[in-house]
Amino acid sequence: MKLNSRIIVLVILVSMLSMMVSGCQSKPAADNNANVQTGLYKPGTYTGEGDGKGGKVKVSVEVDDNNILKVNVLENDETKGIADAAIEKIPSKIVEGQTLAVDAVTGATITSNAILEAAEAALKEAGADVSKLKAKAEEEAVNDDKTYDTEVVVVGGGAAGLSAALEAANNGAKVILVEKLAMTGGSTARSGGKVQAAGTDIQKANGVEDNADLYYNHLMSVGENKVDPVKTRLIADNSLTDFNWLVENGVEFSKNIEQLHEKYRPIRGHYVSVQDGKTEKDGHGWAITQPLEKAAKEKGVEILLETPAKKLIVDNSGTVTGIECEDSQGNKIVVNAKAVILATGGYDFNKELLEEYAPLVKPVYSTVSPGNVGDGLIMARDAGAKIQSGGGAVLLYLDLAAGAGETGGLYVDTTGSRFIDETDFWFTRTKKLMDRNQTGMFYITDAKGKLDSFDALVQGGKMVEGSTIEELAGKLGMTELVSTVERYNELAAKGIDEDFNKNPEYMKSVDEGPFYAVAFAPITSGTFGGPVTNEKTQVIAEKGGIIKGLYAAGEVANGDIFYQEYPGSGSSISMCVGMGRIAGRAAAEEAKTSR
Description:
alpha/beta
């Protein structure tokens, strides 16, 4: 009996000891296994960050031993409507191809690269051999040429193109829209989202009395009566109807309105209202184009993205019968149509066209779509279109570094001569420089106007400083600066600007050294010039008459709508929507008669 008891106790003790040993070993064994990489990756979820256009882009990557399972963009402050395509496509391409050798999305390169940078950082944490993941595999070329038959084809998916496509569909036409980038929106989507319109309910609610005649007079005045009065009249007369049409198609506007400049009345700057945590006046042009795209698709418009048009198809009679395009894989895409509408935007990124049609426009930076290289202008010109341009652009001279104020100090051209009331409208500033055949300007100030940023900029060679005005003038090579500053100080002391009638409140003397010259750089947000059109937006031939089957609307055809000075923020979008709608209706009508 005793023996059996001892055996039982011994068995129990051995069992307990075995369990304890097993328990002690289990945790370290599990930990060791978790840290051992047996495949391409250490299984888990990892995060990384990349530098986007709006700041850091945070990405998570989930992997098992040998596969990238998921890639998600967690946080970003990228431009909605522009970055969306990259946020959607880049992660899926990484997973589909099990690679980081992914091409950036056309039109969203910075966001694409930020996502790839963040994914690379995450995969490094997962133990990946990044060099292998970034090695590009050779792809076998696949011939997938296609031909489409439609009634109206629209080239370009900005405000003008989307408005034209939607209106053509509204008028019973079968419509295809081709867009060279990976998303619609064009320059409108990158803009501040402002629209000029006269006589709206929003104006009335804000106590603003306005009408089409006042808007027409403003456009003609800024255009120095060198713009087409018929089309200008159409834009002004239709601005209210076009504005309400945008609202009917899902565009939401703020209940407030924005004044272009204190010298401009009445106030007619309407801007879109959005709910994304930003203030209403942030850049939200996508809130115009995205609703238009949605409405167009609902009307049956087929949109072909990453399909740049290369040339117009012209038959033996000179009639335009379609377009030839190329998709992202290099395949030839032909779209046969009864009518072609060019809505390709401007040519900010084409140095040759700028030199030819706007030689005083030499941007160091542009806010427009990277697709704005003038392809629509070139296609129309190759088809025999008459081209017109007054040499202007949506051109601003801005201080990109120091943060200098708009109302203080003294503005001079490259000779050192004062040329404007410094508080005048910024687009008037551009026009005055053009009148002087100038492509540069400086803000001159002294110790009283010095900003915290000045010292670092001077040390970095990005700003010029002089202990005296004479020294500053010598460094800048300005022959007129000394006499200009003397005259400006004389007027400031009088309290009367006898030269440019500047408000005495802002006439601050420049007389206390050291002295500074802040360079103002030229920035474009669009160009003027392109094929001439009639009131139906039909393209006019250089030899006279119309080019049958060809229409153009928006920035691509604004050479007789804007001259040298831009009428103000929202003018271009209003013009694009108005002329785009006219083009869509006219093209649909031509398609009907050709059935």
